[in-house]
Amino acid sequence: MSLGSITRHQVKIIDTGEVYTCAKSQHLLKGMVSLGKRGIPSGCHGGGCGVCKVRITRGEYITKVMSRDYVTADEEAEGIVLACRTFPRSNVSLEVIGKLAKNVLRPSVKKKYGFV
């Protein structure tokens, strides 16, 4: 999907079925915030705290440096990455894992109050 010169991709959270758009210059975590979830843990946004761990199950993406304390080379090879350091290059499907799951799997504020 493209709006003018900004390329956007759809990101699907498999656990909830929710879909959001994310520019290729925007990390997955920033796009996730647009869903209206309260309290999405976002930590440092630099790949050093590990709270935004996800598993990419489909699609192409690039990553920036992430702490090996939170994502090992083997995990990264299996698609486990930090959302704050991951940028879509196609439509992406992901599963939330770890500390991020608690808040992302909770119903959104918009949905809870019927604004969807």
Task: Set down the secondary structure blueprint.
Elements: E1 2-3, E2 6-13, E3 18-23, H1 28-33, E4 53-58, E5 61-63, H2 73-77, E6 80-82, E7 86-88, E8 92-96, H3 99-104, H4 109-112
Parallel strand pairs: 2-8
Antiparallel strand pairs: 1-2, 2-3, 4-6, 4-8, 5-7
Summarize the structure in short.
With 116 residues, this protein is of the alpha+beta class. It contains four helices and eight strands.
Describe the model.
It is built from four helices and eight strands. It has 116 residues and is α+β, with helices and mostly antiparallel strands. The protein has a single domain (2-107), classed as Beta-grasp domain (Ubiquitin-like (UB roll)). The longest helix has 6 residues, at 28-33. The two termini are 22 Å apart. The model has no long low-confidence stretch (mean pLDDT 83).
Features:
Ubiquitin-like (UB roll); alpha+beta; 116 residues; single chain; 4 helices
